[in-house]
Design brief:
By secondary structure, this protein is α+β, with helices and mostly antiparallel strands. It folds into two domains: 2-231, no CATH class; 303-507, Alpha-Beta Plaits. The protein has helices at residues 2-9, 12-27, 33-56, 67-102, 117-153, 166-189, 193-198, 203-244, 259-285, 290-299, 322-327, 331-351, 377-394, 433-448, 456-463, 468-473, and strands at 308-319, 354-360, 363-368, 406-422, 425-431, 452-455, 475-483, 492-499. Strands 1, 2, 3, 4, 5, 6, 7 and 8 form an eight-stranded mixed β-sheet that branches. The radius of gyration is 40 Å and the shape is rod-shaped.
Amino acid sequence: MRRRLVMTALGVAPLDLGFTGAYIAVSGRWEAAPLAVLLNLAILIGLNALVVTLLVRPLRHLGSGDGERRRRARRRLGRLGALAPGWAFLLGAGYCAAIFLAGAYTGGPGGETGVSPALGVGAYLWFAFVYGFHFAFYMSFAMGDALAGYRQRHPEEQAAVVKQPFALKLALVAVALAVMPPALILQDLTWLAPVRAAQGLSPTDAVVLDLMALMLAAALSLFFVGRALIRPVVSLVEGFDAVAGGRLDVRLAPASDDELGDLARRFNRMVRGLAERRRVEGVFAKYVAPSVARSILAESADGRLRGAARTATSLFADIEGFTALSEALTPDEALDTLNAYFDCIARPITDHGGAIVNLTGDGLHAVFNAPTARPHHAADAVAAALAIQRLLADARFGPRQVRLRTRIGVHTGPVVAGSVGCDDRLHYTVYGDSVNVAARLESLNKEFGSQTIVSDAVVQAARAAPNGEAALNAARLERRDGVVLRGRREPMTVYALSPAAIREEGLAAPGAPA
């Protein structure tokens, strides 16, 4: 990397040869070429290489060396974007002085140039500024481009850079392309006309030379400035595209020392925040329903979801005979069996838009239409119950591959959904009389010898849903009228629900081996 930086700095030599070649071609003073080339080699290559090598020497400790040397190397890396253009300006001014003193263009001090000493000093100061500006302009963007490439390849070597505002870079471009050319032409046609005449240039020649310098500066701007300004923008666009595609592991190496570099750092902070949010949501979703987790993160500043009254469908599921079965299992086997069972029946619930709000022992409580709205929540709950029965007909669970049957109760009615608990322990729950009814329907399966019982309210709401009638007709419904649930006085109509084509061997006694 240090070799590349030195070679980049030596680019001022061919830049000057471009200026010198243009001058010689326009003026016809070919005798000035040997001295100009000698000065170019001695100063712009020899002296320049020596100084830049010293500037980049601390960088040899990047990626290695002790902590202090590496810190110094990173500090130098961060300051090179400002040190290199500063050196380039001094180099340009000193090179201009050498040219004037050696007489490569004007015959030198005391030469018969027709230029007064005062005018000669003024001309030197002006051309020293012009040379210094163009060298610094080149060094700023060329060196910045090389450093940006290194930062992108080695993001672990980021350093606190000396910030160069984006507005300053635009100002340099504006000066190089819009201010300097007319200023050169104006000076050459007015007070510097005698100097140009001494150089063998007519006013027209001087204007042509200035325009050639303008084209050279424009070419530099098009290449280096374009890369310096466009590269970080392209990097940001690629980063946002990656995030839009779901990648939160993307990180951008700040490719510039201006506000665009700050944007890359802020982009990285944003992505880290999104990744942390996804991680929190993922962990959170293992303890509460994913839809509940998303609602809490999106809508609540204090972790509470305010109570909301709505009509929802509750589904209770409980394993038949699991207490007796667990006596024959070791604690680890019982836990593995329960985990496999819950993983199995949770999928159809979440696939149909339900939220699991509670797990108690071997029981499960899910709700449809809270917290996420589901317009056909009763039909969704019926579809989930049927899917659970189909899955359990063929499923085997735990190390002993046992069969499990579950009892399901489903009811639709008014509920209140929200967070309950104390300041340091909250629980999202759904409560109301309709929830109690669903729990009683699940227990009613023991009396009826059924697996799933749904209320008449569920059936009527499911029939009203699109394709709900067809789904119910494809299932088996056994109507029971005048059923009085425990703890209630009013009789109600319920239905024993089962898939129409469930395999009979799937109805074997719970705990039977595969």
